[in-house]
Each structure stands twice: as C-alpha cells, then as structure tokens.
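ARCHIVE CARD
Drawer: 12
Card no.: 0347
Subject: one protein chain, sequence and derived structure
Cross-reference: see card 0346
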Amino acid sequence: MLISLVVALASVSSLHAQSVTPAGQPPPPRAIYTPKPVYRPEWTKQGLTGKGVVLVTIDKQTGMVTGARMLTSTGNQQLDGAVLQAYSQWRFDPRTVAVSQLKIPIAFANRPASQPAKRTLPQPVILLIVLAIAGAAIGFLKRRRA
C-alpha cells in the first residue's frame, strides 16, 4: 500500500502560535490568509517528512508577512523551501497585530493512504445471480438430454 503524506499545519491561534514577546503579552494576531505549503507528488514517493518551526515577521500596519525563516528546520531543504514560500504569503488582520513576530509549527507526517471502499452487491442481488446461473445450467442440461 502506498504511503501518502499530508501536510498537518498548525493553525495560528492562541493554542498554536507563540509570540516572541514574553508571557503575559497580547494574544497572537488573527490570520486571514493562510496558503498551505505545496507538497509535490514526487516527495511522497521519496517519503519526505519532517517537523519544524517558522518565525514570521509581520508588518503591524498592514498585517503582511515581511519575512519568514526556519527557526527549526524540517530536516529537508525542499520542505523548508515550500514552507517559507507559503508562510511568506500569509496575511494577518492588522487590527489584531500587537506583536511583530510569531513562531508557527509545521509538520509533514506519514499517513496511510485512504483505502477505497469495497464495493459489494446487496445479498438479494447475489441470490438472483446464483439462481440465474443455476437456472441456465439446468436449462442447458435439459436441452442436452433431449
């Protein structure tokens, strides 16, 4: 069975995003545009996984990300590049931006590919098929004897 990979992005919320400022400061800004990193199909075949932390710098006036860098690498340059490209496009509601930097976790993790649903015929249909085959066989045998 093939293993597919899914990007498990932690959303920017008070539970996941951490400001660089000391504890007791305002809550993190509210993200309003959060494109996910592009995970290329060939990376699935290569089994690329990893966890990391991105530090984004936010313009308090516009809510736009002005910089993104890996605080903790995923362990793969391709994954890090995809993360940085996506996170540099994030936008925040400027009315909620009280801190200029956020730490945002990212994880690319193994997940079994979803199994296709097994298609089975309802029992009455199976019974009808069996009866039709049996009837055809009996008819064939009767014609042979005649």
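Annotation on reverse: The chain has three helices and seven strands. Residues 55 and 69 are 5 Å apart (CA to CA).
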